[in-house]
Design a protein that fits this description.
The chain is about 45% helix and about 15% strand. The strands form two sheets. The chain has a five-stranded mixed beta sheet. Strands 6-7 form a two-stranded antiparallel sheet. The chain is an alpha+beta fold and about 240 residues long. Helix 2 crosses helix 3, helix 5 packs across helix 11 and helix 10 crosses helix 11. The chain has two domains: about 50 residues, 434 Repressor (Amino-terminal Domain); about 160 residues, Beta Polymerase, domain 2 (2-Layer Sandwich), CATH 3.30.460. The chain is built from eleven helices and seven strands. The longest helix has 16 residues.
């Protein structure tokens, strides 16, 4: 029978090992035989008297059918330091992404209901996240407007999977998602690239990006910090 861990965080190896052994209903002797660790040593681990080495912890967890993985999260100090870096969106996006955003801006100016999403939406609102991730939410009735804007720069809107479409460049591809109800948007300036035909584009709001769950951890941490600052009135 499979045993599932609950969602509670474990702050030490002692807490984790004790909880796992109880869940699997094993004695120290039984676990020791499975993991090739002396029962007395297991007892010391569970009591927190001794910390197991990483190799030993992996071996004990393997006896339960679990593997050990690690993740990193930026501290708030690191997030604030990154937000303090004034980087031009062009440094973060690259030429192809800017060209994709220009297509979206031209289509919006021609009456298409759309919103730029993905991490690029956060970049356009001032967050220094180096990315090529572009998502365009477009009303189904306005796909033709987007296609026409793309055709003006010799690009083609292509049918993708699961009802989505794609707007590819050489090394970058925007995922185009038809949607009757578009996410809440704000207007981002494109003045950093003065050669563009349009100077502003609708993008998904920071709150909307955060709620979407689609951002990667670093971007999500930056967006959360920016939203917090905005709520506190510490940024315009």
């Amino acid at each position: 029978m499979a045993i599932e861990l609950d969602a509670n965080p474990y702050c030490s190896a002692a807490e984790l090992l004790s909880a796992l052994r109880r869940r699997h209903r094993l004695t120290l002797d039984e676990l020791g035989e499975r993991a090739a660790v002396a029962p007395a040593q297991l007892c010391r681990y569970e009591q927190g008297a001794v910390e197991p080495t990483l190799a030993t912890l992996r071996r004990i967890l393997a006896a339960f059918g679990w593997s050990l993985t690690f993740g990193l999260e930026p501290t708030m100090a690191a997030v604030d330091e990154r937000l303090a870096v004034d980087k031009d969106p062009f440094q973060l996006c690259g030429v192809e992404v800017i060209a994709l955003v220009e297509i979206a801006a031209c289509a919006a100016a021609d009456g298409a209901l759309l919103a730029v999403g993905g991490e690029i939406a956060a970049v356009l609102q001032g967050l220094p996240v180096a990315t090529t991730d572009v998502v365009l939410h477009v009303h189904p009735d306005h796909l033709s407007v987007l296609a026409a804007a793309a055709a003006q720069v010799h690009r083609q809107l292509l049918q993708g999977r699961d009802g989505a479409w794609e707007l590819p460049f050489l090394d970058t591809c925007a995922v185009v998602r038809p949607a009757e109800a578009l996410p809440a948007t704000t207007v981002a300036s494109l003045a950093f690239a003065p050669w563009l035909k349009r100077q502003e584009v609708p993008v998904v709001t920071l709150d909307g990006l955060l709620a979407s769950g689609a951002l990667r951890p670093t971007a999500a941490a930056l967006v959360a910090r920016m939203v917090e600052r905005a709520a506190a009135g510490s940024i315009p």
